[in-house]
Design brief:
mainly beta; Jelly Rolls; 2 helices; 3 domains; about 600 residues
Amino acid sequence: MTENKNKKNNHGFAAILIIVTMMSLVLIVTFSLSAVITTKNRISKNLVLSARSYYSAESGIEDALLRVMNSDYNWTAINDFNLDGSEISQNITQDGSITTIEALSSYYNNNRKVKTELELTVDNISFHYGVQVGEGGLTMGNNSSIVGNLYSDGPVSGSGTITGDLIVATGMSLDTNGIWDEYNDDLIFGKNGEPTDIAISFTPTSTATLSQVSLYVKKDGGPADGVIRIVSDNSGSPSVTVLATTVFSSSKIGSSYGWVNFSFLTPAILTEGIVYWIVVDVDSSNNKYFYIGRKAGNGNSVSEYSSDWSSGSWTTDAVGDYEYKAWAGGLATSVDGLTIGGNVRAHDIKNCAITGDAYYQTISDSTVGGISYPGSDDSPIVALPISDSNIADWKADALVFGILDSSLCNISTDVTIDGGKLICPTGFDPGVGVIITLKGTLWVEGNLILENNNKLVLDSGYSDSSGVIIVDDPGSESTSGKILVENNIIICGSQGLNVAEDDCAESNETYILMLSTHSGAATYAIEVRNNADGAIFYAHNGIAHIKNGANLKEVTAHKLSLENLAEVTYESGLASANFTSGPGGGWIINNWNEIQ
């Protein structure tokens, strides 16, 4: 009996042990699940709090971007602020055209930090000469003067004085093999996975130097400069024998299609009827690359592409030929009747008094204070510094601000213009004494007339960059798109006005580029009868006429006429004038990421 009783007790104890063990396991599992759930809840809550902190930091970045990109705000006065419980601090630093913004957000001890880099897009246009003139050349009246150097692609004559050097380049003519007037497709080159080098065959119609080529191109982002090479033919493809080179300058190429001229400092001498190649060599750079327009079935040339021009491996583009123009040099040009303080280079020199050296083919009735170099080669063409593509970009910049109210065409009170396109069939002609402050790129469709004590001032938000006014009337370039400046007009850069002296404040080497696309041969694209220290005048396709007594800093034109006593005094800062679409635009974001 006792043994059976012990067995029953043992069975009862085992059952209790099993129950206790199972309950313990249940409790352990329950507590574990509870801990896991609690931890997940805590993690989820922290993720929500962290996400909220992150998006608050993003808001801090966006707030700072608004303040930096809009000159109506003073971003240097930014302080910490609270956004719905998130404590946000901002840090903004500038280094040249680069602005770095950081925003740190803390929400219930969840810290998130975001950083972005903002770059002011700038077109660096170099004016290396006090005056640069295209094929139309220059005429100078009595006692007119250029204080600085002159480079002209056309003849120079008159009775004025040039204090520096004078260079009159060889004349040139357009070769008819390369004339296109439309395109129906394009090719990307210089992008990873795309061709990096392109080539166009060219057969000159006469034996001459190849002074200049033009390409119908645009760019995406800010790719680096490339190289244009003129090479000989190798069994229907480009060879590696280089005859001439020049820079494929990215700064002259805009994000809108346009013709861009590239001239050769040492031109190649090409033979009529022989095939040559225009090769464009660029580096591949991810998100920064070029486009070239192409035209299907024109039959005037062959176009090819390659990943490396020097490898000799080329593929013929089956879609079409790339658009180009080519100019043959060698036409005789001359300088006649001037007094030159420096050296002179021209094919023919007549009736001149030269202090320095003279380089020429022929000379007559002239004095040379330095050394004469008869039989010298003509100087090469130098392309004007602003391209059609640059102009197309500036017009696009203006359109970002929209079409302006036409009442501005004849405004009678002081006005600030943020930028935009202003359509004025009878001209943009402000009333007497009106002060115009320019805050963004302005496109005037019609004529621009500044007279009667007007003042044109670049907004201080431009800082050390210059602004742009384009005067262009598409489809009516031969009759419209003119600029007239006269009668006590004041034009200032971003340094602003000195009200006490009724003049510009001390120069900070910023300017307003006033560019006309007027192309009429019998009328002036730009006419200036007034001093204008803060302006750069640019007649892209026409004649600039500077009246007697006017004193300017820089004039560039297809053709230029200086009347008696007119003077252009070159300022060294113009060698690298940065033009931007304005304090309210022209920004690109290089990167945007979380750093903490």
